[in-house]
Predict the 3D structure of the following.
Amino acid sequence: MTTTTRQGTPTEKAHEPILGTELIPKERYTSTEYMALEWERMWTKVWNMAGRESDIPNVGDYFTTELGPESFLIVREAPDKVRAFYNVCPHRGNQIRNAGMGHAESFQCAYHFFEFNLDGSKKFVPDEDTFTQGVPQETALAEVPCDTWGGFVWFNMNPDAEPLTEFLDPLARHLDPYHFEDYAIVQDMTLEWDCNWKTSVDAFNEVYHVQGIHPQLLESLDDIHVQIDLYERHNRYLVPFGLVSPRYQNQDEVTEPLREFMTASGIDPESFAGGMADVRPAMQAATRASAEAQGIDVSELNDDQLSDDYHYYIFPSLTFNTTALSFLFFRQRPHATDPNKMLFDMQTYLRMPPGAEPPPRPPHTRYKHGEVSLGLVLDQDSYNLPRVQKGMNSRAYKGLLINYRERRIRHMHKVLDGYLEAAR
Ligand code: FES
Ligand SMILES: [Fe+2]
């Protein structure tokens, strides 16, 4: 049962838009022309997440972030000011910094030593008098709109971008009760996958595949009673955890995964006297008590949020599996040139009690598909992705046949259509 909380995450079902039933053309996943259109009209117009604010705590700290063919330099220019620049020298085009993070008093290009201030402005040009045309002060790093929300840094290649909070609406309101800024990053990896970035987004935006590839999850979540909410641009679904699926053979069984959940929430499954239906409320109560005992304020979270996966998709590329005290985050990035490739960023965050020292920042690691296990569930998810991409390239395959349970996929395409059709 959902309890009412102050300023909590809205739980009401959103009005259901009419999305149609037609096939979604497969070329959207396979064609370089479509990919170019996506880049010009969508990726360069939306707010993209660059990285974590806590990675640049001090003035002069910076990191790069790569998106499609571009690289960006994210810099803390002042204690309360983060800026984003194209990572390119205006002289002959050298990249200002290699991929990664670091600290700089100023940015000196490694080619002819043009130097730039932290605000991107020109600082020094060797032999400036030999540029007979002059080197105007505008010969600076090219800046793009940049803002922060939830402890993350965001940038937008559109100089006339709407404010970030407007772009995120209503999801900032939904997610603020979690206080993402109080979370520490504990895992950070990038996977090179042989599929389109949307093939990956789709794989996490429906639970229809649970009965197919994750049969073990039927012992710990309800894949049928899943509330789907489609907003103007973003969407979500709410997946109940801590109970068995209606598809599961024994509706009374306190399964092994449920016992593991109980242990993780601080309940001893041996002495637990309740039945299957009592597990979820018990987990919710135990999780709230354990959070409060650590001084973590979860008063803005309703009971369901303490057991369930409030699964948010921020268009176009971000997936948040939010649970009470941790969240699993995916960023799906397009490849620079190939619609059949993508980068999958996967990060785990833990909520920190007030005043607690966060664990050391884990190093970022990068792997090719299959080189490393991502855990059983994500291995099951990722196993199919290159096979799906290959199948979509078959001349026999026409497009995505989408059912009602998969409608977040259709919704994403409608939003994408809106960008592609918008006047430039
Ligand atoms: S390319 Fe940067 S100084 Fe010449
Ligand atoms: Fe899955």
Summary: The pocket of fe (ii) ion (ligand 2) is lined by residues 209, 214, 381 (CB under 6 Å). Confidence is low (pLDDT under 50) at residues 1-5. The chain is about 25% helix and 25% strand.
